[in-house]
From TrEMBL:
Name this polypeptide is given: Sterol desaturase family protein
Cellular location(s): Membrane
PANTHER family the record matches: STEROL DESATURASE
Assigned keywords, A-Z: Membrane, Transmembrane, Transmembrane helix
Organism of origin: Rhizobium jaguaris
GO CC term, one of those recorded: membrane
Pfam families referenced in this protein's UniProt entry, alphabetically: FA_hydroxylase (PF04116)
Amino acid sequence: MDDLRYGKRNKRGDWAPDSALEVAPILVFPPKPIKFLKWLPSYFLPWNVMFMLLGAVYWFFLTPSVETMKTLSVGWIAYLLVRNMAAVLLIFGALELRLYIRRRQGTSFKYNGKWPSDNKSDVFMFKSQNIDNMIRTFGTGVPIWTAYEVLGLWCFANGYGPWTTFAQNPVWLAAFGLMIPIIHEVHFYCIHRLIHVPVLYKWVHSVHHNSVNPSPWSSLSMHPIEHLLYWSDSLIHLILPSHPLLLLYHLHITGTGAVIGHVGFDKIELGKESGIDTHAYTHYLHHKHFEVNYAEGTIPLDKWFGTWHDGTKEGQELMEARYAAKVARVNATPPQPGE
Ligand SMILES: [Zn+2]
Ligand SMILES: [Zn+2]
């Protein structure tokens, strides 16, 4: 595919889309029903449908029986950990292999013209972004993901929490399932703003931001405290009536889904003339500029709070004006006594 039909490349080799990023037409005023209907399929396809399918495969084929999960034991907990690690290795690994090792589409649609493996840096363990990212993903990321899953499934098996079934509450469960990506995004926005508070940024979130040029393995490369906060949205299934299938779907949106925003390419090419849109540019700009696009734009939280960067020159100027105002505030001399 000719990526210059869709965007432009600068002198450094960084590609950017021509069209401005737009927030989803859900909570916009005045309402835009036609735009909403045109946008709606992209809410499901391909990513959320893929995560729902993964959740279903997990629940129907890859989760121990309710009887087994009534008692906490090493056997089934270790099994869940290994199956989650295998899923991450397969999915993240497949994207890494295709896009970053075999480089099947070169730098076509690649936001950053450089390759992370060419950049040896002291901020990473063993000076390697990939090795550092993988150690954090498998060392604390997937274990903490699995711990939330074990807690939820053990509660379900023992009847703790307001669990329900699709036979009892089909409308509620369908509505809840539809809302899960949005619940995840609002929760992520809140914890993300929190860990950008300077002291938390320094000790916790800077680990994730070390990957200025993110690739699939950067997705879950976080400090363990961020991992703990990141998956805590799954606790909502212990508060609202839910079903384990929805819990597993939710954990995939949070865990596996993180890879979409960090893939580093705007399209994954499938042939000479087609490709899958990743919508990763919103979060790529967060990794590039740090204080913009804390959420993904499904709900216009960044617009409401003035941190939206739509990728255009105007978006860049707005961000720079905001930074300049912030610097001026910090440097302003406080009034002296008697003034
Ligand atoms: Zn990120
Ligand atoms: Zn951040």
